[in-house]
Amino acid sequence: MRCGWAGDGEYPVAAIIGSWLPWCVIHDGSSMTVEPVCAAFGLAARPGASITALSRGAAGRIWHLDLGADRYAVKELFVESDEESVCREVAFTAHLQAAGIRLPGSVPGQGGRFLVPLAGDSGDSWLRLYRWVDGVPADLADPGLAAQIGDLLGRLHAHALPAECEPDPWYETVPGPATWDQLADAARVQGASWSQALAGQVGLLADLAELVAPAARDQLVTCHRDLHPDNVLVDGSGDLVLLDWDDAGPACPDQELAGLMTFWHIHDDGRADDAAVGRTLAAYRSAGGPGHLCDERSFSMYIATRMNFLHGQASVALEPATAPEHRQYAVSEIWDTLARLPSLSLISHLISLAKIAPG
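Predicted structure:
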């Protein structure tokens, strides 16, 4: 999760964690109702219309808005974005839709704005509206999925637009080594269940940090940058639909390809699914994907985002003002991220598989 500044209030563990990365306090979400959402986006709230919470991530919650003949996905953002970056995203996704990439189209609100503020009892929130897409989560046990996801990423990179800005530090820098010891100590003082697990991974985090470096500026294109299984649906025809474009921005194709391998093809015990890796790489090449896993630096963006996400979730979990729902979510994400940190031997193995893959 990329966090924004929470304001001018005091943060009890800020001095321990350090201020290299903006932190955030996430309070209770709004109680969403049909009428204000429809008013914000100029929609008619017909009798029988409903809005239902579906799922949530670190940065927002998804609601299903059912108006009868028309259905939408409403994203409630926990942290404010800005209209300029949203408009860049909308233009990019429209370009990809024209190239045949399946994704939910954005719907503007009143005045043509895509990011719409909504005042509520628990404070302001920010909404996005998308066309509804029927689908089911991707089944990682499906042997055909590896080729499908490789083909999708290959087409994304083949039709990628030039990067419009520099990558922000979230994708290229990580906390200093002392940060993890300090975080683990702060967690232990608060009696956090994950304090020992974090302390046990401090050495690996330090080793992984050595692989993080700025991306080559002459290789940057606009990428999705968050292509994990939770952001992919399979529609009724079996096509993949790629969701959650909030993080789209500049990246190197080889680094996004490396991240896909680690998100999609690693078993819970830390072993790679070699056959699936091969099928993904072959499909990626056939679709015109330009990325290559050259060396350990190809995993730089994946490592940076995982470490920054871990730091952000730990900060949320340790903040006393965090709402219970968000603290519980943060703790579950801390455990999951720690369990899925890639070992150096796994990274070397994936690189060796890429070297022998067709194409």
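Summary: The longest strand covers residues 50-56.
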